[in-house]
Amino acid sequence: MRKIFLFLLSFMTVVGAQCQSNPTPKQNSPVARNARQAFDHHAKYKEASITHRRFKHKDIVPLLEKLKQNPLFQVQVVGKSVEDRDLYLVKAGTGKTKIMLWSQMHGDESTATMALFDIFNFLQASDDLNPLRQEILKNNTLYFIPMLNPDGAERFTRRNALDIDLNRDALRLQSPEAVLLKSLRDSLKPDFGFNLHDQSRLYTVGTTPQTATISFLAPAYDYAQSVNQVRERAMRTIAGLNEGIQQFLPGQVAKYSDDHEPRAFGDNIQKWGTSLILIESGGYRGDPEKQYIRQVNFAAILAAMQMIGDQGYKKYEVKDYFKIPQNERYLYDFVLRNVRYQQDGRSTLLDLGINRNEASANTPQGFYHRSSIDEIGDMRVFHGYEELNAEGLTLVPGKVSETTLNNISDLTAAKAKDLLAAGFTTVRVRNLPLNANPVDLPLNVLSVAGRVNHALGLARAANFVLKDKAGKVRYAVVNGFLYDLSKPKPELFHGLVL
């Protein structure tokens, strides 16, 4: 009876969290209609020259310079980064309500920057969406600062060239980029501000399996998390935005923690009198380059501009802001469940949580994956983008092949599959190129003199095979990627040059 009660309690908790985060969208509300219109027509405005997350400052400068030719925009260089890259301010609209938006203050958080360039294309078009476009430009004056941290974007890292986190430099102002943002806020005195970020793909909506694809926050301006008129406007706007984008992300919208961070720009800009809305772009299944999330950002920001311009946010309640579930970290890239592991005569039932982290490199996509086993034990409360129930299987650490190949090209797909079936996850190569990077390698590659240990352990790489009771290898895991040996090699699967 107790087990049944606990199951029902757990079920009700999950369902309750999902229902709370997934209100029935009001398809006829202005914010829902405008978001839907923008979302459905996004392809017409999508900036074709930006197709992946790791673009650089040099990629956006020609686009910004081209905007100068259109009288709709005022484009000017308003500052320099630490490494002397130009920082731009783009102005559009003639309305009384001032909205300032900035993106990529963290150099590796580029989703909203892509959406801003799509918005520039939208604003200068003329088509069936003219009523929405004209209303936004008539009611608002828009100020955009795309890519506030171009030096970080160059390396695709969070911090700027001084290794300072710009979002923790709102008070000390030691970075030129932070000085610029503060001075623009003070001189323009925007009514609303949008602080546009990316968050980890591993956040969930509460404790549910749903990814927190978009998380909102009206940052608190003090430790008491007080609500004044300025913060209340941001909360009401977020409540409206949540309603508007649930139609694209049912149950996948969360709220970032309201904890006060006294050094952060969002918290301080809220304190300084601008209603501040933080948008965090997380993960979405099957969207590693965040192109779907880019589309959602595009729709959400345009719907927000319309809602702010006609003060439609006043129709929403602060209580609905607090109903949005908080994002939590209950997600891994790959969860392996119920596997047996034999060690020192002991058989242990384990779950593993594996993450595939990106490392920048000179590869076509600009990075490669390096896996890490980040959890071992009972993981029943956690979820994975990919999961495997390994009940009845035994985990055996991968072996290094005794055979030495002359070149990487000798590691054919057929040969790799034979090696995996024999329990090998790493092979030695005699003529290993200097500074070699993995390019769709089916196994890990090691030099003749190299040494490696694939023993199972926390914070170690995930390289092992899963054997059935007859001792046959059913699955291989190489660098955290799963391969069912009864099927073709999956598209996303590669080893490392060790």
Please describe what this structure looks like.
The protein is an alpha/beta fold. Helix content is 29%, strand content 27%. It contains 13 helices and 21 strands. The chain has helices at residues 2-21, 30-40, 42-45, 57-67, 111-123, 130-139, 150-155, 176-188, 229-245, 265-271, 291-309, 318-323, 413-421; strands spanning 73-80, 86-92, 97-103, 140-145, 192-198, 204-205, 214-217, 253-255, 275-281, 327-328, 331-343, 346-360, 367-377, 383-389, 394-397, 399-405, 424-429, 444-447, 464-467, 473-478, 481-484. The strands form four sheets. The protein has an eight-stranded mixed sheet, sandwiched between helices. Strands 11, 12, 13, 14, 15, 19, 20 and 21 form an eight-stranded mixed sheet that branches. Helix 9 (229-245) crosses helix 11. The model is unreliable at 1-22 (pLDDT under 50).
